[in-house]
Amino acid sequence: MTTNVRDFVELLDVDVHPGLIVLRESGLSRTEQWDRLKPAIEHVQESGDPDFLLNKLIEITGVGQFEVRRMPKP
Questions:
Q1: Which of 1, 36, 41, 44 could form a disulfide with 21 if both were Cys (CB 3.0 to 4.6 A apart)?
Q2: How does pLDDT run across 3-40, given as a tens digit for each residue?
Q3: Tally of domains within the chain
């Protein structure tokens, strides 16, 4: 999980990566960060797929607001 989107998205330029969770808001307290991160983590867990994040990016834009995208191959 990172708020440093630019650098980490560039690191995804590989055939296989373990996935990335991006928090688009900055300046949040730890509690506020957790409030945003928790629903995304629960979504991954509820999928039942241990490889759910493989080659994917989850972009969190607010509490309960996130999008899961497959990252294109380089």
A1: 1
A2: 666 666 666 667 888 888 888 888 999 999 999 999 99
A3: 1
